[in-house]
Each structure stands twice: as structure tokens, then as C-alpha cells.
Amino acid sequence: MKELGISLGNLPLVILPKSMKVKMKPSYPENQTKDFIERNNNRSEWVQEVARHFGEAQKQKRFWGLMFFLSDHVWNVSSRLIHFPFRNLTDVLKTIVRLKAKDIILFLFSLIRIESLLLLPGFPKSKEFKKFLDEQLLITVQTTSKKAPTTLASAGLTYAHLENSYVLGGIGELARFLVDFIISKGGEVRFKEEINGIQIEKKQSNILYSVHTRKNKTYFATSIVSGIPIWNLPKLLENTKNPSQKKLNQFLERRSNRYDKNIWGAFNISILMEDFLGDEDCIHFQFHLEEELPYGLGESIFVSLSHISDDKRCAKGQRVLAISTHAAYPESWDRREESYKSKKQEIISKVIDYLEKNWKGFSKNKILQIQSASPATWEVWTGRYQGRVGGIPASYFKNLLSYPSSFTPLKNFYLLGDTVYPGQGIPGVVLGALNLFKRLG
User: Fold this and answer.
1) Over the stretch 108-135, which tens digit does the pLDDT of each residue have?
2) Is 34 within the bounds of a domain?
3) Which of 54, 179, 267, 416 has the fewest CB atoms within 10 Å, measured from its CB?
4) How far apart are CA 61 and CA 67, in angstroms?
């Protein structure tokens, strides 16, 4: 918002005093407390809280001290070294001259996985703590401690300790705010026009792009910034003899194939129910289940609630709950399958039964409406290939040369979104856009 010259006061924001509460498995033998683990933006309070639950106070202090140091520097480097990820030797040289001593530390820790770090002397050894990290990492960097590079993981593990806000009306309100801003600056926003093809025409040294939609409309441009997931793009450029278009298609095919395995989907449950939390000051919860959900789903669920003061999403005295869990093999979900509806209902029943037993005040009798969405639903409503969500897992980024860039072989065709560095979540997508803007500016 600062880059756009917009005051945050123009947005209907509510600052959240607590960013998240986590409930571990009650059956864990190491579980020293049976209540929620509370996360907020006070770092010293968090170290005390995590030690209260998992023990090993000095080791926890050392671990989180390192995580905060690395994550602070990750955000600094991401905004300062705008020529990373590299597209050529020139980018490498421009980055080297801007390096600081701390940047080298960041690079070294990118070569170490969190699981390996925990094996070193002086770091926590609790199996329950490792499970806590694994489930937190899954919702931020899409992989566990076994494969998560420490540098990237630090940002994922500490985001809950930044200032967290809630937009009254939900995330759609933020989108509407940005649409209004674009229109106020003379821009146009087209809704419900799915792109079904991109053609490229080269005229002398210039390139003209034509974008075709399912409404039989064509838009012409000399530049394109695409937020479409990389797995969807090659299909939009296929069936051509044009050398430039073929070159771009092959580039995108190689990139999408490079990041094609072990990509997550999601299973979601939306519930409208009578309010059972009252003035509870936390609206984000993670629950570790006793056993993983069937059909390749996760061992934890993430629950996000509408704020008690939000009368745009539901009436007073009601709450909207958005429940999600990871889905391995999203391509296996088929809406035409005979057992499709029964599989969804089985998952819903297991989640509702768990919450009724483990969340004080939650009762199926208070549910007013309930809906669910599988990866197949995601594919229908968002168009994302196989219903994939969450971007590219951090396990793919094993070295500095493995990070995907916004640049392509063709002039003025750029990539953004959650499948391009730095990727996942609103902060990552926005940071990627800002860096591209600075490079082109």
C-alpha cells in the first residue's frame, strides 16, 4: 500500500492481538500442557510460551533467536537484492556488488534443512516440537522440516509474529479495494473472461501479443504480466509454428515440468454457524488430528473464522468458519466418480466429530450451513491446473540457482504469482511484483 501511496487507514482493518492458536495431539507422551499454544507478535512472550509447552527453554531460545535473525534478513534481502533470482551473469554480478556480510550467513543456512539443524547440539530435540514445526511449515512453505531449507523455513515459521490484520468483509474486500484503485487511475478490470489462448506475432524487433478469451474477445498488448500458474500457461501457447511462440512454450513447459511432482491441493469446508466463541480474540486455529484424514489428506486442519465485528460476512451472533487441509495427489479427485460425494461426506464427518470433541463450545447442532470443496472443485472454480494451491513447495529450492525468475526468453512477457519467487501468500506475491516493478522501472 505504501508503494501505491495508499494509507492503510482507507482499509477496514482490525489488528489481531493473537495471530494463531495451535492444539497438539492430546495423546502425545511429551505433551506437558493440554491447552492451546498461543502465537502473537511479541517475540519474547512467544519463546516463553513455546518453552512452557515443549520444555528445553534455553534450546528454544537459541532456536527462535536464529529463526528471527534469519527471517528478518530474508525480508531485507528479498526487497534489497532485486536481481535475484538470477536470469543471467549480469544479474549475478549486480547482486554480488550489493552483498553484505549477513547475506552470506543467509546463503549458508539455505543449504541446511530444518531437520538437520535440530540434530545439532544446543537445539530442541522434542519429537512433539518437531511435529509442531512440520505442520506450521506445511501451511507456509508447503513442506516439512525434512525438506525445508532453514532460510526459507525461518520466514514461514515466524510470519505469525509479524503484525496480523483482518479485513472486514473478508479477503474479497481487499480485492475490491484494489480494483477500485486501478479504475480510479484510469485502468480497466475485466471479470469472468477466462483466457483460452495467447498468440505471438513478431514484427521486426517488436512483439505483439494477442490474448483470446472464452467470450470470443481478443485483447492486444505489447507487454504481458501473467499471474497464471506456470502449469496452466503452456497449454495457452501450444499448437503454433511461430518460432517466438514455440520458444516461449518450450521454456514454460520445461519450468512447469521441473516443478511438477508433490504439489499440493487442498480440501476445504465452509461452515456458517451460531457463534460459540464470543469475544475470543483469536480467529486462526490449527488442530493436530489424532490420525491423518483419508484419501491423502493431512494430519492437521487450519481454521479461519470471521471476526466478531464483521457483519458483512454473516449476521450478528453467527460466525463463518473456513477449514482447510492439504491434499496430496490433487489429480486423483474426479467429480464424475461414483464415490465422489461419499468421500467428501466422510471427510466432513471426521472433521466435525473431531472439532466437537476437542474445541470447547463447538457443536454440530449449531451449524446452519455447510459446504465443501475438493481439489476438483478448486479446478472448476479457479481454473488452476488439477486444483493445485499453495504455490511451489520450498523443498524445490535447494540452491540459489533453483529459484524461478519473473523473466522469460521473450521481450515484455513476465511471470508473477504464487508459482514464481518468492511465491506463496499475499506477502510473497506482492514482494515479487514490487521487485519486478523496480527492475523494469
Assistant:
1) 999 999 999 999 999 999 999 999 999 9
2) no
3) 179
4) 10
